[in-house]
């Protein structure tokens, strides 16, 4: 595990920009915003992960009012996620990112477990190896997802997959 940059517990107003981050261990993270992280900027970073269950940028557990844009995120490994938004993630902007995933069931952007009122737009997403461009599941609602360019290759890879309890999203 381990993370390149870890923002945690009532952290706000930070500008994380122009960093080069590489992780090579399973469960590795590029940038993590966790547990009441808000009003942070993640801009112009180059993030590479190369392992199973590795993550580029993670928003998790009450993360709101952040902006993630103009980043280049590349993941290589099965079940990796370029951007994961999970567990009470709301009012964030995710835009103009260049995302490539390479590995079975690797997702470009995943929204899951009470994710709402976010805007995800203008991203370029390419998946290689049966991953979805975007995956929305488990109480994902009122999100605006538009003007994204998504290429998927591999059997079973969907451009955008709406699964269990994804509703009232603008796509």
Structure report:
- The protein is mainly beta.
- It has no helices and 25 strands.
- It is globular and about 40 Å long.
- The model has no long low-confidence stretch (mean pLDDT 97).
Question: Can you tell me the residue ranges where pLDDT is under 50 for at least 5 consecutive residues?
Answer: none
Number of helices: 0
Q: Write the H/E string, N to C.
A: EEEEEEEEEEEEEEEEEEEEEEEEE
Large-scale geometry: globular
Q: For the record, give the distance between the C-alpha atoms at the N and C termini, rounded to a whole number.
A: 34 Å
What oligomeric state best describes the polypeptide chains here?
single chain
- Secondary-structure-based class equals mainly beta
Major beta sheet, strand line-up? 1-4-8-12-16-20-24
Mean pLDDT across all amino acids: 97
Radius of gyration: 14 Å
Per DSSP E runs of 2 or more residues, the count of β-strands stands at 25
Taking the sheet with the most strands, its summary is: 7 strands, parallel
Proportion of helical residues: under 10%
Percentage of residues in DSSP E strands: over 45%
Which secondary structure elements does this structure contain, and how are they paired or packed?
Elements: E1 3-8, E2 15-17, E3 20-23, E4 29-34, E5 37-38, E6 41-43, E7 46-50, E8 55-60, E9 63-64, E10 67-69, E11 72-76, E12 81-86, E13 89-90, E14 93-95, E15 98-102, E16 107-112, E17 115-116, E18 119-121, E19 124-128, E20 134-137, E21 140-141, E22 144-146, E23 149-153, E24 160-162, E25 166-167
Parallel strand pairs: 1-4, 2-6, 3-7, 4-8, 5-9, 6-10, 7-11, 8-12, 9-13, 10-14, 11-15, 12-16, 13-17, 14-18, 15-19, 16-20, 17-21, 18-22, 19-23, 20-24, 21-25
């Amino acid at each position: 595990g381990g993370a390149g940059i870890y923002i945690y517990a009532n952290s706000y107003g930070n500008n994380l920009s122009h960093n080069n981050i590489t992780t090579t261990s399973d469960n590795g993270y590029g940038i993590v915003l966790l547990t009441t992280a808000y009003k942070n900027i993640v801009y112009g970073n180059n993030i590479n992960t190369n392992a199973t269950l590795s993550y580029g940028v993670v928003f998790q557990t009450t993360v709101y009012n952040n902006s993630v844009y103009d980043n280049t995120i590349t993941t290589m490994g099965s079940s990796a996620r370029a951007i994961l938004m999970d567990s009470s993630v709301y009012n964030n902007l995710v835009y103009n990112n260049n995302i490539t995933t390479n590995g079975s069931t690797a997702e470009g952007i995943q929204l899951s477990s009470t994710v709402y009122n976010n805007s995800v737009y203008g991203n370029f997403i390419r998946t290689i190896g049966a991953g979805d461009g975007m995956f929305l599941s488990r109480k994902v609602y009122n999100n605006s997802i538009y003007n994204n360019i998504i290429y998927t290759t591999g059997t079973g890879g969907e451009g955008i997959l709406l699964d269990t309890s994804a509703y009232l999203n603008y796509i």
